[in-house]
Specification:
The structure holds 2 protein chains of 2 kinds.
Chain A (H helix, E strand, L loop, with lengths): L22 E5 L11 E7 L2 E8 L7 H7 L6 H5 L6 H16 L5 H30 L3 H21 L8 E2 L2 E2 L5 H26 L2 H7 L7 H6 L4 H6 L6 H4 L25 H25 L17 E9 L2 E9 L5 E7 L1 H7 L1 H4 L5 H11 L3 H5 L1
Antiparallel strand pairs in A: 1-2, 2-3, 4-5, 6-7, 7-8
Helix pairs in contact in A: 3-4, 4-5, 4-11, 4-14, 5-6, 6-11, 11-14
Chain B lengths: L1 H11 L3 H41 L15 H10 L11 H18 L17 H9 L1 H12 L3 H32 L4 H7 L13 H17 L11 H4 L9 H26 L10 H6 L1 H26 L7 H29 L5 H30 L5 E4 L4 E5 L7 H22 L2
Antiparallel strand pairs in B: 1-2
Chain lengths: 385, 438
């Protein structure tokens, strides 16, 4: 990604002429707003960017290779480490792929528990994202408020799974632990208590004059660009592309649940600008609350795990993807008839969304780039794996 | 000061060189005293800032060193002094080493002409306002030197931002202060305070509509000059790492922060002197206050209370608002604040020309402005408490009982512990069952 450069003739805010000197800034791998170990090489003219080139690979741990040396079930804990903010989704995509290879039918209670934990996890992930957008714009307080809420979710997940960050909750054929009635009641209490917090968050920061001014019309991504660069999830929907795997490629228990897919409208500025990306996530939190309420009501009783005795799928290959907090998180699993996968390829949203930075960056200011990275919600471990 | 030196010389029968030495010694003593006071103020401000930030963000803040964490700033100071004083190899050494001193001197020296009471002033200069404007600009030089001397691109960007910012905002802030100088007809801070009174309608902020606007102009511009949020671009953490002080460590780093925190107090102090009647007590004449030590002490309390309100407002703003972008910052100044400042200056002049001081119309204007501002202030306070009542703070902080945090709304107290145990028991049972079945 570093070597090549793209022509961007359609940017309006480029003021630098080619003859002038440029300042090369090294942003990262340790920088407060690169969100993990990620590096950008900025070519700027003063504060105005000519080009920002992302440089990834600082957090490569060879997780895909590790899959080939572990059994199918043994790889599940590794998937947590692909994205520490949404481990349930990372589990879910992988176990779904293996279940397809095995032809296992997951019990309905397990599917619904997967949905409940998924949506809790989506909320927790969006808290961090929205909070860091606010923090990168310079407002610290919303971040702390959202972390406070995340703490509730961490407590809930700890009560269910024993873990606060990498839950390792899903198993091939079901989930690890059953939820008690008391736990479900706690979740319901949390969701009811959280909805007013979204309003409070909106009144605190979403409508703030300075905040809106900083995000509106900044780094808009057109629908064609978004599709072309392979953006997924909230980033894609912010550009107005109506695509959500939960609805368009139904999996797990999602077909039984009612929810809307919020889209970017460019209400205050251009379609697909930073403010749209921010707003879509806020609206998604409301939908997550809606899904959670339904799922808690519809949770069937029964087994939480299908009987899976030997995990040794016949030679075949499959792709399974879930709609994570950062969009499509897909696993391409190739089986060769042994008890270990022949190859596992992970398709994550962060890598694709980072690739568009170089295309959008010319003409932005340094402060705008920070807003762009924050609203794209890139996460270094998911990018590098 | 010279008066005191004269009196002491007469008392001990000193003359010539001895008298000069005494005078110089006294000046050094007062300078030391002022520095100590300002150091303490800066330290305490850093503690207050962190405590207020904690409460704003529904957490506790520093509460471990001393009662209520009151000695936290001392511990921080000791820690920073014992740290290594690092100078980057490629830095411009003299500039790098000198920069924090300029920032500190700029703020500390300004305190010399701040009147804390009728006689409690280190140097009552007849050009007090001009002196303040001049000496506080020294911080800009210090920041620019730090940014350039560090030989770090992020620091340089921070320094350049700071220079642009201070040059821009110095103008509206000076204009706003000049409006008050116009009203008072003097540059001396003591005279300006003396012309006001103890009651709110005697303050210059409520003198006329233009002086009312001038206060907000000064307040905004002072926040910008002090590099405070929403104008903290020179040290914008999320953009420029730490801006101009990226390369600094130890006591030099602390110097910048001491400067910043003392500056919050300083700008509130200046605003109190010029707009809020300074140390004046309601119904007490300046002469009476000068004569009585008790009344002076009371005046000091009133003065500090007013300044603290200003400091609290600045801190509150910092932990609420996001940061502007560079272009938005300068366009705010040049497009809106600067023209408004000119209008204020001209308006104040016109008011002085058209309305006779002390006439019924003059008093009526004071009264109406005070009443309207009071009503607006009351409405604001009511809104604040309305929002506090309707907030969903789901963690209550009970310091008295030493409990760290207790969930009250969402989840009951013992919920999670019991739940966790139940969950673990279920997991153990499930594992045992799984082991039994083949």
């Amino acid at each position: 990604m570093v070597a090549e450069s793209r022509e961007t003739p359609n940017q309006v805010r480029v003021t630098a002429d080619e003859g002038r000197e440029e300042l090369m800034l090294n942003m990262g791998p340790h920088h407060p707003s690169t969100h993990g170990v990620l590096r950008f090489i900025l070519h700027t003219d003063g504060e105005v960017m000519r080009k920002a080139v992302p440089d990834v690979g600082y957090l490569h741990r060879g997780i895909e290779k590790l899959a080939e040396r572990n059994t199918y079930a043994g790889f599940v804990p590794f998937t947590d480490r692909i994205n520490y903010l949404e481990p349930i989704f990372a589990n879910h995509g992988y176990v779904m792929a293996v279940e397809r290879l095995l032809g296992v039918q997951v019990p309905p209670r397990a599917e619904m528990l997967r949905v409940i934990t998924s949506e809790l996890n989506r909320l927790a992930s969006h808290y961090v994202t929205l909070g860091s957008v606010a923090m990168d714009i310079g407002a610290y307080t919303p971040f702390v408020y959202l972390l406070r809420e995340r703490e509730h979710i961490n407590d809930l997940m700890e009560a269910l799974t024993g873990q606060r960050l990498t839950f390792n909750y899903l198993r091939i054929g079901g989930v690890a632990f059953d939820a008690t009635d008391e736990w479900l009641k706690q979740v319901e209490q949390f969701v009811t208590g959280f909805e007013p917090i979204i309003d409070e968050f909106d009144s605190l920061i979403s409508g703030n004059e300075i905040f809106v001014k900083r995000l509106v019309n900044v780094a808009p991504i057109s629908a064609a660009d978004a599709v072309g660069f392979g953006l997924v999830g909230p980033n894609l929907r912010a550009s107005g592309v109506d695509w959500d795997l939960r609805r368009d490629q139904p999996y797990s228990a999602y077909p039984e649940l009612q929810f809307d897919v919020p889209l970017g409208k460019g209400k205050l500025g251009t379609l697909g600008d930073c403010h749209d990306r921010f707003l879509v996530r806020v609206l998604e939190m409301r939908q997550s609350c809606r899904i959670l309420k339904q799922a808690l009501r519809k949770l069937p009783s029964g087994d939480i795990r299908a009987k899976v005795t030997r995990i040794k799928p016949a030679a075949a290959e499959t792709y399974a993807a879930v709609e994570g907090a950062r969009g499509e998180l897909g696993y391409y699993v190739v089986a060769d008839g042994t008890d270990k996968p022949y190859r596992v390829k992970v398709r994550s949203g962060s890598f694709a969304s980072l690739s568009i930075v170089e295309h959008v960056s010319p003409g932005l200011m340094i402060a705008d780039l920070v807003a762009l990275i924050a609203t794209l919600d890139t996460l270094a471990p998911e990018m590098d794996r | 000061m010279p008066a005191l030196a004269n009196r002491l010389s007469a008392m001990f029968g000193l003359a010539g060189l001895q008298r000069e030495l005494l005078s110089t010694g006294l000046i050094l003593l007062v300078a030391l005293l002022v520095s100590l006071v300002v150091l303490t103020i800066g330290g305490i401000m850093s503690y207050v800032e962190r405590r207020v930030a904690g409460r704003v963000q529904s957490r506790v803040g520093p509460n471990r060193v001393g009662p209520l964490g009151l000695l936290q700033w001392v511990a921080d100071g000791v820690k920073l002094i014992t740290k290594e004083d690092l100078v980057p190899r490629d830095a411009d050494r003299p500039l790098f080493l000198l920069a924090p001193y300029l920032v500190v001197i700029g703020v500390f020296a300004a305190f010399a002409s701040i009147p804390f009471g009728a006689l409690l002033i280190a140097a009552d200069l007849n050009v007090g306002v001009v002196y303040l404007l001049a000496i506080t600009s020294l911080t800009a030089v210090g920041i620019l030197m730090a940014g350039w001397g560090s030989n770090n691109k992020w620091a340089m960007l921070g320094g350049v931002r700071s220079a642009a910012q201070i040059v821009a905002y110095e103008v509206p802030s000076t204009m706003a202060l000049l409006s008050i100088v116009l009203l008072a007809g003097s540059l001396s801070l003591q005279t300006i305070i003396g012309q006001q009174g103890g009651w709110p309608w005697q303050w210059y902020i409520f003198h006329n509509p233009f002086s009312f606007v001038a206060f907000f102009l000064y307040f905004t511009a002072a926040i910008a000059e002090g590099n405070r949020t929403p104008f903290d671009l020179p040290e914008a953490e999320s953009e420029l790492v730490a801006g101009y002080n990226t390369e600094y460590s130890g006591m030099r780093f602390a110097g910048f922060f001491l400067g910043e925190f003392s500056n919050v107090f300083l700008m509130s102090a200046i605003a109190t002197c010029l707009f809020f009647g300074g140390w004046q007590l309601p119904g007490v004449s300046v002469a009476a206050q000068s004569a009585s030590i008790g009344l002076q002490a009371l005046g000091l309390v009133v003065y500090v209370a007013k300044v603290c309100c200003g400091c609290f407002l600045v801190i509150w703003l910092r932990w609420t608002l996001p940061r502007l972008r560079v272009d938005q910052l300068t366009s705010l100044c040049y497009r809106y604040l600067l023209p408004l400042a000119f209008v204020c200056l001209l308006g104040n002049g016109a008011y002085l020309y058209l309305v006779t001081a002390g006439s019924t119309l003059d008093l009526a204007v004071h009264g109406v402005v005070t009443a309207l501002a009071g009503a607006a202030g009351a409405f604001f306070v009511w809104r604040v408490f309305y929002h506090i009542r309707h907030t969903h703070d789901r963690i209550s902080i009970d310091l008295a009982r030493g409990e760290r945090s207790v969930f009250d709304a969402g989840v009951q107290k013992r919920g999670y512990g019991a739940l966790r145990k139940a969950g673990l028991a279920a997991a153990v049972a499930a594992a045992a069952a799984a082991k039994e079945s083949p």
